[in-house]
Write a structure and sequence with these properties.
The complex is a heterodimer. Chain A is mainly β. Chain A has no helices and twelve strands. In chain A, strands 2, 5, 6, 10, 11 and 12 form a six-stranded mixed beta sheet that branches. In chain A, strands 3-9-8-7 form a four-stranded antiparallel beta sheet, with no helix packed on it. A two-stranded antiparallel ribbon of chain A has the order 1-4. The radius of gyration of chain A is 14 Å and the shape is globular. The mean pLDDT of chain A is 94. Chain B is built from no helices and eleven strands. In chain B, strands 2, 4, 5, 6, 9, 10 and 11 form a seven-stranded mixed beta sheet that branches. Chain B has a four-stranded antiparallel beta sheet with strand order 1-3-8-7, with no helix packed on it. Chain B is globular and about 40 Å long. The model of chain B has no long low-confidence stretch (mean pLDDT 93). Chains A and B meet through β5, β6, β10 and β11 of A and β4, β5 and β9 of B.
Chain lengths: 115, 114
């Protein structure tokens, strides 16, 4: 069975600093996808970034980037120049290539950005 | 932009009541999902549907059923609500092209069963 583990229940960072959220996963699949979703206090889940397992290059989206270590089954999220609006729950998620897109989520990391 | 609408933001029900949570999407998506979100447990998949009248159990289907009579609407049914079903329920949809596509989420229904 596939599992996703986020080992940091809560984190905080000063505005304008950089923070890294950790995620590890377990799977025997070769074709899979990894995602980071953000859930601000409004409760609206927003896709932050996604990575295809067969791509070696780490995905980036503006201030958000990932460190994808396939052999270690690690998928961390780096947020640069943190902003107050980045305060949210962050969920790491996994799905395999043969799925209908149903995601397996980690337990989440609550990130607080402090002014 | 895709809109996924959940009929209620907050809902309070009594133990034993039959509860319907409704979800509607407006982009002709093939796939729809119901997740349950609990603090410290993340999101867990209850049921999903990849076509009208088709459904698949997720990781925690016990105590729930679903209905998808029309493509745009996916209902979650609690046949006899219990206090351990107090939770946030999130509906999502996706086009149905495969695993890489993103899910579009509703804003959630916070259900309290008393």
């Amino acid at each position: 069975a596939q599992t996703v583990t986020q080992s940091q229940p809560e984190m905080s960072v000063q505005e304008a600093e950089t923070v890294t959220l950790s995620c590890t996963y377990d799977t025997s699949e070769n074709n899979y996808y990894l995602f980071w979703y953000k859930q601000p206090p409004s409760r609206q889940m927003i896709l932050v970034i996604r990575q295809e397992a067969y791509k070696q290059q780490n995905a980036t989206e503006n201030r958000f980037s990932v460190n994808f270590q396939k052999a270690a089954k690690s998928f961390s999220l780096k947020i640069s120049d943190s902003q107050l609006g980045d305060t949210a729950m962050y969920f790491c998620a996994f799905t395999h290539g043969g799925s209908q897109g149903n995601l397996i989520f980690g337990k989440g990391t609550k990130l607080s950005v402090k002014p | 932009d895709v809109k996924v609408t959940q009929s209620s933001r907050y809902l309070v029900k009594r133990t034993g009541e039959k509860v319907f949570l409704e979800c509607v999407q407006d982009m002709d998506h093939e796939n729809m999902f119901w997740y349950r979100q609990d603090p410290g447990l993340g999101l867990r998949l209850i049921y999903f549907s990849y076509d009208v009248k088709m459904k698949e159990k997720g990781d925690i289907p016990e105590g729930y059923s679903v209905s998808r009579e029309k493509k745009e609407r996916f209902s979650l049914i609690l046949e006899s609500a219990s206090t351990n079903q107090t939770s946030m329920y999130l509906c999502a949809s996706s086009p149905g092209q495969g695993g890489y596509e993103k899910l579009f989420f509703g804003s959630g229904t916070q259900l309290s069963v008393l």
